[in-house]
Amino acid sequence: MERAGFYNKVIIMSDKIRLCCPCHFGLESVLKYEITKIGGTDLKVSDGKISFTGDLNTMARANICLSTAERVLIELIEFRAETFEDLFQGVRSVELERYIGIDNAFPVKGYSLNSTLHSVPDCQAIVKKAAVERLKTKYGVNWFSETEPPVQIQFSILKDIVTIYLDTSGAGLHKRGYRRNSNAAPIKETLAAGIVDLARVRPESIVCDPFCGSGTILIEAAMKALRIPVGINRRFTAEKWASVNSKIWQEERKRAIDGVDRSASFHGYGFDIDDAAVALTLDNAHKAGIKSRLKIEQADISKFVQPEDSIVICNPPYGERLLELREAEDIYRKMGRVLGHGGNRQSYIISPHEQFEQFFGAEAKKRRKLYNGMIKCQLYMYF
User: Cα–Cα distance between 60 and 55 in angstroms, integer?
Assistant: First the structure.
């Protein structure tokens, strides 16, 4: 286990820490740009996640500012383990006491894929046991009350390579705090933010969503254009850790608020056939503090007129049953007649329908595979 000890020194023994942010498959390039903007260095891009180097300020900044990350993890160690003894010794070599106090709770969760150690409950128990033994030695006690705020330990085992993390976010970063209400099929905030980036929304953009639902796409577009940090109105689990100075969070919140640009001319227009969706969008926009930038109306897609020099970004209905599928295909035909196909009327449409372009009546200039939850989709880009 010498390799584990070496990694331990590299990742832990300095002011610099290694961080990792999971993201939706297909949004890695967008997240990479965001991480670079907040000062992350030595980026390593993998499918569905990016690891990078920073410090505790970078960790706080990532939680507050990254719009496409699912959470922010501190990456403690990486090592090979094919036996429970390998796993135990690898975890026990980590300086967990740097973050976990004598009274902190330290629950464990994780997953294993294509690995010799495939039983997740057994791995969970070994990681917990190793953490307990490490902390017992460091604190000189035989029992832990675990009554203080939790420091969540996470493990991933992929092809026998173990990575141990601490979760600094708590609730997933898609929980911005503005969408306490949603309709039947909302798009996740982090995915919407990624599509907004791919659509190159700018401070002066006009963005339209003819299927606005609970308003997620328009709200994410407005926050991006006005440079409003997406996590400014929520709390993160690492704020309760004694190992992270509260001044770090204060500094990063102030820094983020100072970057807001209310002078941006951005405007958004939302439409939905359901009057309840219109009310929902307005309520969520109010909670997000950008209601004045949006105009929301009840209207059918066939009545939609796309303004010049505007970008449509939408998540139209799709059907899983035959009747619903036919209704969805009829909607795609109507969309093809009223939405721009590029130039000064651009459209970015996410759909799981493999023949979407056929019903829309135009081939996309570019497509990108994305996942909306567990549903495989394409982002059809007309620009």
Answer: 9
DSSP string for residues in 326-367:
HHHHHHHHHHHHHS--BTTEEEEEEE--TTHHHHHTS--SEE
pLDDT 10s digits, 12-21: 335 899 999 9
Same domain, 263 and 339: yes
Rounded to whole angstroms, the Cα distance separating 78 from 81 reads: 10
Residue 151: which H helix or E strand, with range? none
Residue partners of 257: CB distance under 8 A and separation at least 6: 229, 232
Adjacent-strand bridge partners of 211: none
Q: For residue 139, what are the domain limits?
A: 2-167
User: Does 255 lie in the same domain as 327?
Assistant: yes
- Taking residue 62's Cβ as centre, other Cβ atoms within 10 Å add up to 28
211 lies in the same domain as 78: no
Same domain, yes or no: 203 and 251: yes
**C-alpha to C-alpha distance for 269 and 218, rounded to whole angstroms:** 8
Asked if residue 180 is part of any domain, the answer here is: no
> Given its phi and psi angles, is residue 39 left (phi above 0), alpha (psi -120 to 50 degrees) or beta?
left
- Number of domain units in the chain: 2
Gap between the Cα atoms of 103 and 98, Å rounded: 13
Last residue of a domain, one of 167, 201, 218: 167
Give the torsion through C-alpha atoms of 302, 307, 310, 315, to 10 deg: -10
Q: Please write the tens of the pLDDT for every residue from 119-164.
A: 999 999 999 999 999 999 999 999 999 999 999 999 999 999 999 9
- 194 and 290 fall within a common domain: yes
